[in-house]
Amino acid sequence: MAVAAALILWIHADGKDPDLKLTLTVIGSVISGVFFVQKQKLEELKMFKDLFREFNQRYDQMNEKLNNIVDANSLDKLTAEETKVLFDYFNLCGEEYLFFKQGYIDPAAWHAWYNGMKSFYNSPRINALWVRELEGNSYYGLRFRD
Fold first, then answer.
1. At what angle do helices 80-101 and 107-121 cross, to 10 degrees?
2. Which of 3, 9, 90, 137 pairs with 35 at a CA distance of 20 to 30 A?
3. Residue 145's pLDDT is what?
4. Mean pLDDT, the chain, as a whole number?
5. CA 122, CA 128: separation in Å to the nearest integer?
6. Alpha-carbon distances, residue 11 vs 6, 15, 30, 64 (angstroms)
7. Rounded to whole angstroms, how far apart are CA atoms 140 and 99?
8. pLDDT of 111 above 60
9. Quick check: 53 pLDDT over 90?
10. pLDDT of 121 higher than 90
């Protein structure tokens, strides 16, 4: 709006009769620009909401199994079913990271998810598998830093 006001003042500053068409064009362009920016923001918010909902639903479906893996005896080898659950979780984490890097996930949500990921990453039963997977450059560049 400040740009529109400055342009309109500039149009009228020469002391001549203002060009009504030019003034209306400037006003219309500014209104269109503001509308476009608001529409873009709403679309990004909707996308974030949809992604947030989908990611949380997928996590909720595996949360109990993940916690059971963590709570089991740390000396027990991972079963085939546990490994499948972990691969599903790793893929979810990679997707979340990809969308975060693309700017579709709010940083506050990402940091909360990342802290949760780190707790699983630090679990003795899960760590070796996840380290091996991350060494293969899987999961869109997701890394864990201390």
1. 150
2. 9
3. 78
4. 88
5. 9
6. 9, 9, 15, 66
7. 10
8. yes
9. yes
10. yes
